[in-house]
Amino acid sequence: MKRKLQKEIDRLKDKVKSLFNKKCDFYTSEVENYAESILAKYYVKHLSTLPDNINRTEKELEKIATKGGFENTFFIGQNQLHAEYVAELNQEIYRKNPKKYIKTFSELEEKYTLDDWKFFSFINDAYLKNQVDELEEEIKKKSKKIRQLYRTSVESLIVPLVDKSNNEKVLGVVCPTLNTNQYQYHEIVFLSPEIINSIMTTKGFNIFEIGDNEKTPKEYAEILLAKMIEDGMSDLEYFVYNEYFYQIDGEISSVKTTYSTSMPISTAEDITEAFLAMVNMRKSTSNVIKRKIAFRYKHKDYHFRISMMRQSKTKQIGIRRNRSVAIRLLSDISALKSYEDSNLYPEVIELIKAGCRSGGMFLWVGKTGSGKSTSLYRDLYSLWKDDGNSKLITIDNPMEYEIDGATQFDVTDTSETNKPMTIDTIVASILQQNPDYCSLGEIKTDEEYRSFVKLGLRGHTTGGTLHANNTKSAIKLIVDMGGVPKEMVTPNISFVAHQDLYPMVCQKCHGEDSGCEECMGKGSKGVIPVVEFAYFRGLKEYDDIYDYEGLIKNNKMLYIGKIEYAKRLLNDKKISFETFKKIELEYGDYIPDDMSDILANFNYEKDPAA
Question: What is the pLDDT of residues 233-265, one digit of tens each?
């Protein structure tokens, strides 16, 4: 034992003797100093194992440690050393009230939940001495204090937790620190370096939570876009969480994750300003902005669709001006998956192709991020390419895919001009250009519904997307909002497909190998579509398009329910049982016969009108 270091430890130990006989917590400088001297001893142990220090004497290593030239981050990757350190702390300082030591994530998840950095509820009111009014300038002052506390928590490796048994606030730490006095909590536990490292680095959004004065708003925005590309994130959004922070959500392989609830408002405002500058809308007073952003990263061009909307929070005046921002990473048309790579069953692919060739209207419906637009463009692009000498016209707001050789209209390109184009004026014009195939992006407004029906009733193969809960509700929306009688719409609908994307079971290990290199032990890789499919054939004006059972009986419709489709995916080990139960819970309505029987019994040759 090094004499000088031991002498310092003994001196500090005498100072905290009075603490041994009562509950001791991280409240005093004596406790922290004593713990730091013990920390220095373990730092010397750490230094002695490094290759660069082989020729250093014990006195030299001790000199480095006693000077305090180290951070508690040296424990990262040193789980055994840290366990010994915590054991000594409990023995020397906390023997009357030993602190729990959580070694693994499974142990952590069994007893606690991460509090997602919701630090406002964690901050000690006594620490924030000045009570401030809820005016914008005062909010900013208080926000700066909170931002500094958050920076401190990250630098000190403090993690907020909630005890599952009683919902009490708990702080997870690597080492004792006076900084814990700044937060309200009921208990402190030690977390292994492995857990801390994973929490601090896996989500990767600390830069936005802490802020960096050396970075410009544009650099912040570009980091955000680059992270979406690197992580394979299809969607990212940030929005006001409370009067101090923004929340960041991201979606990878249709799995949505909250990455942070602690991005300071000032940081979010800077990023939003940068995005507005990128789309030349910095001076815009519009409440809703939709634009497309081009971004070059690692010698490759990427395109994003960005949507901004003013968000209101009644608690604070200033927050009413802040925007909720949603970003979608768009795929290049060359990256569109072919039918063979779409993970759809061959029978469904043949029905899609037949429906597209039959003319009239077809729809891909579902929720945000379900692959509606991708499926629509795949269908039209494949049809158009196979046809050779044909004309394709697309209308978008904004445009998601650029197709060489197609005639495309982007409504957002003219929205801020003196004479903006509308969907209605574009449709009136393109009807005179004799298109073979048409598409109308996402159908939302009354005008767009009417325009879609107008295109479909004039002999053009017309595809579109919209938000709906199922195929039948999508048809009802088209009929009710399209401005024409149901009898006119019914004969002109070829198919409606409702789609959701779910995690696909790893096809190498089938979710059974935690060491699988293909899926990195996650058990799933990529996503797979689960569809409800309504295919219509030979419908007449007098047919009731809402009567699925009657149409199926008369061989005028083929219907594949989502539950039956999911059953087949489960049997083929494409989705997990947990995913199937989730689908069953959400879509457990009308279930037809077995999917294979439906496909086998459907008579493609028989004329239903005969």
Answer: 888 998 887 666 788 888 877 777 777 766 777
Q: Residues 453, 542: one domain? A: yes
Range of the domain at 232: 206-330
User: What is the C-alpha to C-alpha distance for residues 278 and 304, in angstroms, rounded to an integer?
Assistant: 11
Mean pLDDT for the chain? Answer: 76
Cα of first residue to Cα of last residue in the chain, in angstroms, is: 99
Across the beta sheet with 407-410, the strand order is: 407-410, 392-396, 437-442, 461-466, 361-365, 493-505, 524-536, 557-560
291 plus 434 within the same structural domain: no
Whether residue 49 sits in one domain with residue 20: yes
The predicted structure's pLDDT at residue 50: 66
| Residue 91 to residue 13: CA distance in whole angstroms | 12
| Per-residue model confidence (pLDDT) at position 491 | 93
For residue 166, is it within any domain? no
CB atoms within 10 A of CB 213: 4
| Amino acid identity, position 99 | K
Beta strands in 3-66 (DSSP E): none
Residue pair 240/272 in contact (Cβ under 8 Å)? The answer is: no
Cα separation, 470 vs 367, in Å, equals 10
What is the per-residue pLDDT for 513? 77
User: Which neighbouring-strand residues pair with 249?
Assistant: 237, 258
The reply to whether 494 and 421 lie within a common domain is yes
CB hemisphere CA count around 484 (13 angstroms): 20
Q: Quote the number of domains for the chain.
A: 3
Question: Could you read off the pLDDT of 72-124 as tens digits, one per residue?
Answer: 667 766 788 888 888 988 888 887 788 899 888 778 878 887 765 444 344 44
pLDDT at 267 over 50: yes
Chain Cα centroid distance, residue 24: 42
* Residue recorded with tokens 């040193």: 78
- What is the DSSP secondary-structure string of 53-80? GTT--HHHHHHHHHTT---GGGGTT-HH
Cβ(366)–Cβ(500) below 8 Å: yes
Taken in order 180, 183, 187, 188, the sign of the CA dihedral is negative
How, if at all, do strands 288-297 and 255-264 pair?
Answer: unpaired
